[in-house]
């Protein structure tokens, strides 16, 4: 297994290097993608969750989401903090006067003056550097979304490193769907899948996050999205337009929640409809990240991984055991699943 990096997530050496590896082309357009559908799957997010004042200002200016993001990126940090309500204009001026006698950056000085918290500073930096959307209402998202709430922390950087390794060492045009697996409960699969999907989206990849844990789903809670109708309804005949939804304010990210838990999850996931869904998603998204239930308790994860063709293994420090991990690797390889790598997930 991989070594642990500090107190966070440590990427191991990612396996399955292909001699035919090629650089992936990703969608890096500045403008927010519209809600179009390709092969029955919506591509890109829908609208933005804005405060009433910000939303009215946007409508008055007639700006699109890409224009708003670009305008924030050109602003000084103090302006961003005032615009978002972190500082008043008077507080900003106090920091600027103090800065004349100090060599400290504006953000660090604001923290030392106890005018903003570390989380607020990281959010302002995220807006300035384009990691976050200016109209994203972070309050509706779970604290599990470290890439949103703490985009410059140690864990977020480790997730970004894992995403970069996957893009460089594993992903190709034909291999871009990844099941997130682990043997037992409480090993952080949903947490890591959500943050990995966000990392891919922030890098400009059109990303689909699919919650295939039909036993104890969490992605709808993490992103503050409706639980229904979801994947289970989609596999029973619902139209994709009614199921897949862009995550408001998060560019390049689409979510399909699990939906109501069916009496026979294995029967739904093992059917032809699920394999067809994965194939369509692979064709029309740059990256597809699939959350799964514990592999040691059910066959669901193995079925999902067989459909995606690749799996990423997670282990939790002081929780995961070596033998179940070995068994999972053996079962995946027997099913001809590419094990893209393994991670020690200290979330």
Share of helix, binned: 40-55%
Radius of gyration: 21 Å
How many beta strands in the DSSP annotation?
10
CATH topology of the largest domain: Rossmann fold
| Terminal-residue CA separation | 17 Å
**CATH A-level architecture of the largest domain:** 3-Layer(aba) Sandwich
Briefly note the structural class of the backbone.
alpha/beta
Counting structural domains, the number is: 2
Series of H and E elements: EEEHHHHHHHHEHEHHEEHHEHEHE
Strand fraction band? 5-15%
- Identify the overall geometry: elongated
Low-confidence stretches: 1-40, 42-65
Spatial ordering of strands, largest sheet: 1-10-9-4-8-5-7-6
Q: What's the rounded overall pLDDT mean?
A: 78
CATH class of the largest domain: Alpha Beta
Q: How would you name the CATH homologous superfamily of the largest domain?
A: P-loop containing nucleotide triphosphate hydrolases
DSSP summary: helix tally: 15
Biggest β-sheet strands, sense, barrel: 8 strands, mixed
Element layout with pairings:
Blueprint: E1 10-11, E2 36-38, E3 41-43, H1 52-61, H2 65-73, H3 77-83, H4 89-100, H5 106-112, H6 118-128, H7 146-149, H8 154-169, E4 177-181, H9 189-202, E5 207-211, H10 219-223, H11 230-234, E6 245-246, E7 253-256, H12 265-269, H13 272-284, E8 287-291, H14 300-308, E9 310-315, H15 322-334, E10 338-344
Parallel strand pairs: 4-8, 4-9, 5-7, 5-8, 9-10
Antiparallel strand pairs: 1-10, 2-3, 6-7
